[in-house]
Amino acid sequence: MAMMNHDLQSPQRRAFLRRSGQLALTGTALPFALNLAAMGEAAAFNAPAGDYKALVCVFLFGGNDYANTLIPYDDTNYNLYSTIRGGGAGQTAGGIALAKSALTATLLSPSVGPTDSQGQLNRQFALNPAMTGLAGLFNSGKMAVQLNVGPLVKPLTRTQYNSSDRTTYPRPPQLFSHNDQQSIWQSSSPEGSTVGWGGNMGDLVLSNSLNTSSVFTCMSVSGNAVFLSGDTALQYQVSTSGAIKIQPATNTSLYGNSAVPGAIYNLLHNQTSAHKMENEYLAVTKRALDAESSVSTALALTPPTTTFPTDSLGQQLKMVARLINGRSTLGVRRQVFFVSMGGFDLHDNLIRDHGGLLGKVSAAMTAFYNATVEMGVDSKVTTFTASDFGRTLASNGDGSDHGWGSHHFVVGGAVNGKRFYGEAPPINVTDGSGSPRVYSAAEQWHVGQGRLLPRTSVDQYAATMAKWFGVTDTEMPQVLANINNFGTPAGRADYPWDMGFMA
Fold first, then answer.
1. From CA 91, how far away is CA 348, in angstroms rounded?
2. Is the distance from CB of 94 to CB of 375 less than 8 angstroms?
3. What was the pLDDT predicted at 476?
4. What is the pLDDT of residues 394-444, one digit of tens each?
5. pLDDT tier, 121 (very low <50, low <70, confident <90, very high otherwise)
6. Of 102, 149, 361, 467, which is most buried by a Cβ count within 10 Å?
């Protein structure tokens, strides 16, 4: 017998109910993705007249190693880190531990020290030595660090995590699985989900007619991403070179005759058919041609002069900057973007490869922030990182294995930067035992091998940005399925909705 989902908060059920109501009101199924704004539910999206805001997700595919991204710097905790990761005597490099002397250029100087779950004072952190750009943004107040964040259905302790009562203490499904955790980060549901929280925000934008062009609300420069898919909002994909063209209607050398593309274009724009599916196909194709033309016009504007790295992530963020530069041409006041970078599944060669990857992330995100300053929109654009999961603190010999919680970065002029948010986890490795026992305070925030048990949920992390974006407290459950499990909008003392890192 198939399992039925009776959860009223599930994205699939919400989508079904929402669409059913929409079709009842309109009397018929509207053509695919047309008149999207008319399909949205009434909402009170908080967007003052004339303003613009954008969220940019930088997804690190493979599961980024948290312990060599944000490294303990105070002697007590650095020594614990180094011992666990195989460091050498005298705080030198060894195993998969970085030398303390390599961290001086990326030492973080917060305006307020991090809160430690064990009450430790004087905790210090440094970024990976390759991340000088982001270290500079943090120390200048333009970046915040969200500590130990990851997917949660409800708040969990280690004892509750080990409980056999999965109804009272549910775990996120398919923990430690790449595909499922990527999907849960983006959509609150495992692989197969069709609606993401970025797309849910896009739905609210469309339901309030904030964008005159619905097509450019959710945009990806990294292929298909469930993060950007809504019930009504569709993701529009571009490449680092621009809009993806329909070649027969745009290739001037087709069949050696420059008149052919124009003829095809006219056919697509003027032809009608008695066949409903054929008409729909023509409508979709026409919309794609019109969108390509609009994007090309927007990209023809004088771009920011900021120099971007030539690697893939650098060029993806350069394209996002150019699209934001053309926001008026595209007819948008709210946008959600997705870019990504792979290679972080480092079971091996962590020391050899990890720093290079993080250096590219740092350089690209720093260049992008500088471009937003140049365009005068730095307080209107917020960039944040996400990844499948963190990794084990314990070494597997040459790398680290799949984990759970991790540390992430939020960058922008509207960020309450130069601070850590959430709780700094203790540097500790446990045996992963699932047998009933009393765990020490330090062990409560690990689930074996230094896998962090998240103290902040993805829902809280996302809600903090969604609130800045304009989502109201009453709309928040439409965006994030589990948010009501973490208290009221005002927040509980231990699990508030708003983590505080956005102005």
1. 22
2. no
3. 93
4. 999 999 999 999 999 999 999 999 999 998 999 988 776 656 667 777 788
5. low
6. 149
168: pLDDT strictly greater than 90 = yes
> One-letter amino acid identity for 214?
S
Q: Which of these, 184, 14, 114, 188, lies nearest to 423 by C-alpha position?
A: 114
Q: Which of 65, 81, 63 shows the shortest CA–CA distance to 426? A: 81
Tell me which amino acid residue 242 is: G
Question: pLDDT grade, residue 1 (50/70/90)?
Answer: very low
Angle at 282 between CA 280 and CA 285, to 5 degrees: 110
DSSP letters for 48-78: -TT--EEEEEEEETT---STTTEEE-SHHHH
Chain segment 437-478, per-residue pLDDT in tens: 677 777 888 999 999 999 999 999 999 999 999 999 889 999
Beta carbons within 10 angstroms of residue 417's beta carbon = 23
Q: Which pLDDT value is given to residue 22?
A: 38
| pTM across the whole model | 0.86
For 330, 362, 371, 381, 449, the CA distances from 301, given in Å and listed in that order, are 12, 27, 15, 19, 52
Three-state secondary-structure class, residue 457: strand
pLDDT for residue 35: 36
How many other C-beta atoms lie within 10 A of the C-beta of residue 119?
7
Domains and CATH numbers, the chain: 51-243+310-486 (3.40.720)
363 vs 111: CA distance, rounded Å: 24
Host H or E run for residue 386 = strand 381-387
Q: How many CB atoms lie within 10 A of CB 348?
A: 12
What torsion do the CA atoms of 252, 254, 256, 257 make, to the nearest 10 degrees?
-60
Could you list the beta-strand ranges (E) of 193-333.
218-220, 235-239, 242-243
Locate 336 and state its tokens. 């959600």
Q: What is the DSSP string of 113-148?
A: PPEETT---S--EEE-TT-HHHHHHHHTTSEEEEEE
